[in-house]
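Field reference: sequence -> structure
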Amino acid sequence: MKKIRITVKRMACYKDLMREYENPIEHACNMQLGQSFIVENCIKPEGMCDSAWETMLPFINELSNGGGNFYDGWMLNPYSAMISCNDGFRPVSFYIEVVD
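Structure field:
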């Protein structure tokens, strides 16, 4: 299996939506801009958000097994993907790429 690097590329926060719809929570995300993880054998790296991991896993599986070219040319690098976690209040965008 190929190694995969996941890099945090952007973090957004929609305070207006949070005020209107979210129950107040003390802490929601441990990701840091620029933070990166290496994935080997499709095992979730230490410190990776569970929800983000579940969203990325189909792409990671495909890339790890030599696939790519998602959606017929979506990415400049066909062995990569830009995936966001499913938190609608504070989405984090991750760049996923083959490094092996």
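Note: Residues 4-98 form one domain.
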